[in-house]
Amino acid sequence: MKSLSNRRVLLGITGGIAAYKSAELTRMLTKAGAEVRVVMTQAATEFITPLTLQALSGNRVHTTLLDTEAEAGMGHIELARWPDLVLIAPTSANFIAKIADGKADDILSTLLLATKAPIAIAPAMNQAMWSNQATQQNLQTLQQRGIAIFGPESGEQACGDVGLGRMLEPAQILEMSGALFDEGLLAGMRIVITAGPTQEAIDPVRYISNRSSGKMAYALATEAAAAGAQVTLISGPVALATPDRVKRIDVISAQQMLEASLGCAPECDVFIGVAAVADYRPAQFAEQKIKKSSDTMTLALVKNPDIITAIAALEKRPFTVGFAAETNDIEQHGAEKLARKKLDLLFANDANATLGSDNIGATALWPEGSQALGPASKRLVALQMLTLIRSRYDASSNRKS
Ligand code: C5P
Question: How many helices, marked H, and strands, marked E, lie in the chain?
């Protein structure tokens, strides 16, 4: 179920015996990569405890409209803005009537009025209540408003009746929810991106670094997450906010970036080394601040590990993408790095024009070809790069299988 990866699902639960199936639905949604927040009506809490849903979703469960604790954290309006999908399962006959009427007298109905996200409901009720004209008219109203209606199915009911009104099984609801989303370009792909400069400490107050801003890596992380990928950003010190839906691991030195990268690599499909890793670090770290006692000073440096080379050398290696910021003979140096570091793809660019800038032009190089990208904003070029990564990744997976 790739299309639910990285999606935000607000799961509403109303009162009904089928509420016990919501626990399994929550587990399945989470397993499919969705982030789930649960909102329950008071009646729902009579059938299943908020604690169960909290444990399965990993998020606090909301049950009342005016909860001082919730309003201080994620209040109901904020909660209404949060999801990519509002899914109500089970939806009782009473709640269907409430939605049709546009009522806002509990947290879930209020959220429905305030949200702009698509809404889907999975009705569950006695077969006579389902076929009642009032319910059928309400359902028509909901359908006209674009609300998706999943099920119900026919079968034996808790009350002993047999007929239409059983809630669909969680697996079917999951399938239908996933189908509401277009498959993103990178749906389900796990991507690790290194970002920014590294700082190599000389003494407690001084370090060696470079002018990398981290903007290109953050633009890639933003676009990759929006395209459905699960993104981990291993970031050196930068002045940028963490993009939405991206997991960020902060590091300072090249050594720390290497350790974090090796830790994440076995769990990823694509590794993109965008970081401007300091090539050298001081041979010795002075525990105390170095005094300016002489007119000249010599600092002994040692080479830092090459992170991307280490990743590309792993036995079970991810699709490995590098960058080369050059000041001269850009494509020639880029091609040499592609081969020497054994990369699958490399983006070569002009360091003078790119460092710190919001724009970039680059040449994509891979063993069998090349392509010019940009110049345009880093956001736009990031999208072109990800499109190329997707197609080269697919080509290399096909070769392997
Ligand atoms: O050799 P150069 O620094 O130009 O190579 C650039 C590419 O190698 C980038 O993808 C960069 O993130 C990566 N790199 C690395 N570890 C280093 C140096 C560079 O991963 N120590």
Answer: 15, 19
Nearest CA to ligand 1 atom 10: 322
Q: Which of 212, 258, 271, 277 to mutate to test the pocket of ligand 1 (most atoms within 8 A of CB)?
A: 277
Could you tell me the end-to-end alpha-carbon distance of the chain, in angstroms, rounded to an integer?
A: 22
**Integer Rg of the chain from CA:** 27
pLDDT tens, residue by residue, 294-315: 899 999 999 999 999 999 999 9
On the question of pLDDT at 219 being above 60, the answer is yes
Query: What are the phi and psi torsion angles at 333 (to 5°)?
Result: -65, -35
Q: What is the pTM of this model?
A: 0.72
Task: Using the atom order of ligand 1, give the atom closest to the CA of residue 343.
Answer: 10
**Cβ-based neighbours of 323, under 8 Å, separated by 6 or more:** 216, 272, 273, 274, 346, 347, 348, 349
Enumerate domains of the chain plus CATH numbers.
Answer: 8-178 (3.40.50.1950), 190-288+297-400 (3.40.50.10300)
Alpha-carbon gap, residue 335 to 87, rounded angstroms = 50
Query: Distance of alpha carbon 352 from its chain centroid, rounded?
Result: 32
Active-site residue, selected from the candidate residues 159, 290, 339, 395: 159
Q: Which residue has the tokens 């796990």?
A: 190
Q: How many CB atoms lie within 10 A of CB 105?
A: 10
DSSP state of 276: B
Q: Establish whether residue 322 lines the binding site of ligand 1, counting it when its CB lies within 6 angstroms of any ligand atom.
A: yes
Concatenated DSSP letters of 76-143: HHHHHHS-SEEEEEEE-HHHHHHHHHT--SSHHHHHHHH--S-EEEEE---HHHHHSHHHHHHHHHHH
In angstroms, rounded to a whole number, what is the distance separating the alpha carbons of residues 349 and 328? 10
Backbone angles phi, psi at 124, to 5 degrees: -150, 120
Tens digit of pLDDT for each residue in 104-147? 999 999 999 999 999 999 999 998 999 999 999 999 899 888 88
Higher pLDDT, 27 or 399: 27
Q: How confident is the model at residue 161 (pLDDT cuts 50, 70, 90)?
A: confident
